[in-house]
Structures are given as structure tokens and as C-alpha cells.
């Protein structure tokens, strides 16, 4: 099953720079460095429509709940990788305990049920 991690590349970060593309590249490198243990596509995408709380990301996979997060920063790369791990392992995409994702558990904006 392919899991998709979408990261907004048009959000301006807290430093006033478009940091989403850099975050996406760093997460992709980290996942690759760990041996590419997951079937995860890291996709840079334009606006996820949470512009007042940049940077935004979304997780999605067929048959799984989708998640939307905002307020992501460059320092969250390892927490994003941990979140991806949780999502890949979560049956139906339901993450029961998000503590391993660190600060990101407080950045969740919404969940969309699986089809």
C-alpha cells in the first residue's frame, strides 16, 4: 500500500521563508536514510488552505483515515518521520497513541474517515 505525505511548499514559515519544500526534502532523506522501510511518497504540494498556521502537511492512504496538520517547522523533521511510522503501522489509519510524534500531536487540525 502506498502512503502519501503531502507537505505544502507555498506556506511561509515563521521565519518568513517558504520552508515546506526544504522540510519535504529533509523528511524524504531521513526516511531513505533509515532504509526506505515504508512505501511512502513524500509529495510537495501547493496550498493546503491553512495559510494562517504554516507549514501544513497531510497524510493519506487508500482505505485509511486521512490526517491534516499545521504549524509544522523545520525542527519537526524527526517528529514527522515518527508520525509517518505511526500512520503506516496504524490499522485503518487510526493513530491510537500519538506521543511518539512529539509536538506534532498538538498540531492536528482534522481527520477524514476512510472511504
UniProtKB/TrEMBL annotation:
Pfam families xref list: DUF1636 (PF07845)
InterPro entries reported in the protein's UniProt record: DUF1636
Top-level taxon of the source organism: Bacteria
Protein name: DUF1636 domain-containing protein
Natural source organism: Shimia litoralis
Taxonomic path: Bacteria, Pseudomonadati, Pseudomonadota, Alphaproteobacteria, Rhodobacterales
Amino acid at each position: 500500500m502506498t502512503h502519501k505525505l503531502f507537505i505544502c511548499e507555498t506556506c511561509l514559515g515563521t521565519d518568513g521563508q517558504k520552508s515546506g519544500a526544504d522540510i519535504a526534502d529533509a523528511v524524504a532523506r531521513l526516511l531513505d536514510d533509515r532504509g526506505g522501510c515504508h512505501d511512502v511518497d513524500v509529495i510537495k504540494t501547493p496550498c493546503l488552505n491553512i495559510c494562517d498556521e504554516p507549514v501544513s502537511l497531510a497524510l493519506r492512504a487508500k482505505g485509511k483515515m486521512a490526517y491534516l496538520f499545521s504549524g509544522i517547522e523545520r525542527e519537526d523533521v524527526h517528529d514527522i518521520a515518527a508520525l509517518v511510522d505511526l500512520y503506516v503501522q496504524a490499522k485503518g489509519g487510526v493513530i491510537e497513541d500519538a506521543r511518539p510524534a512529539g509536538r506534532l500531536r498538538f498540531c492536528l487540525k482534522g481527520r477524514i474517515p476512510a472511504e
